[in-house]
Specification:
Cytochrome P450, iron ion binding, 261 residues, Cyt_P450, 9 helices, mainly alpha, heme binding, monooxygenase activity
Length: 261
């Protein structure tokens, strides 16, 4: 449910389509994105046993090629549809009612004096990144937040009361409301602390350094264990407890953005 919701939001933003049903372009994209998520979560033996890279014993390389071809074909079709619609509007002397992300990228591709020129391949890659990176993580945060609300009804009631007092009951929450919803912000931060969308993430060292008594060479691949950092009792009071108030009390110290964890 949450995956479909996030896909619908991103589809509206990027190409003015809804990801509903199976017999439409946006719905097919949703299906392929789910396959991408499954491939990301699959243990790839060739990452640990180099000899397997040439054998594809799991068939993952073949699946990746198939999914990549389907995604690129669909993205190309989306771009062509937008180009045809823009040409038709131009011939009919009609103004576009509104531009989505694909329209803006086509503007960049057509702008000869632009400092940043977009190629067709770059446009396809950017839209794919929006779907692949912008759906699974957002859906995961929402699912875990709803699960914690069920487990902690008092927190749910407090968040609901704040939304009702600021937004009311006659409209949805807007982005402009967020600064006035500090408890809701704390709820999201606590969910991301206790249930990070990506428990581990890779980074590459730009230069040699020493961390915790260990020598880390330059250009080394580092795996950051965000899950362990989030539950470290040396830095968090009652680390296994779901407590959004911890971010209210120390709002100027702890944040999910910036240099501090």
């Amino acid at each position: 449910m949450t995956m479909k919701l996030t896909n619908n939001v991103i589809s509206r933003m990027t190409m003015s389509k809804r990801c509903a049903g199976r017999n439409n372009e946006a719905g097919e994209i949703t299906e392929v994105i789910q396959q991408v998520g499954e491939l990301f979560a699959t243990l790839y033996l060739a990452d640990y046993i180099g000899f397997f890279k040439h054998l594809d014993v799991q068939g993952i390389t073949k699946k990746v090629k198939v999914v990549r071809y389907r995604l690129e074909s669909m993205m190309e079709e989306v771009i062509k549809e937008h180009e045809e619609a823009r040409l038709k509007n131009k011939m009919d002397n009609q103004r576009n009612k509104g531009k989505d992300l694909v329209d803006l990228m086509i503007d960049l591709m057509e702008a000869e004096d632009s400092e940043m020129r977009f190629s067709r391949q770059s446009a396809r890659a950017f839209v794919l990144e929006m779907f692949t990176a912008g759906t699974n993580s957002s859906a995961s945060v929402m699912e875990w937040t709803l699960a914690e609300f069920i487990e902690n009804p008092s927190i749910f009631q407090k968040a609901r009361k704040e939304i009702d007092s600021v937004v009311g009951k006659n409209r949805l929450v807007r982005q402009s409301d967020i600064p006035n919803l500090p408890y809701l912000q704390a709820v999201v931060k606590e969910t991301m602390r206790l249930h990070p969308p990506a428990p581990f993430f890779p980074r590459e060292s730009t230069r040699g350094c020493k961390i915790g008594g260990y020598d880390v060479p330059a250009n080394a691949t580092l795996i950051v264990n965000e899950w362990a950092i989030s539950r470290d009792g040396n830095y968090w009071d009652n680390p296994l407890e779901y407590n959004p108030e911890r971010f209210i009390a120390k709002k100027n110290i702890l944040d999910v953005r910036g240099q501090h964890y």
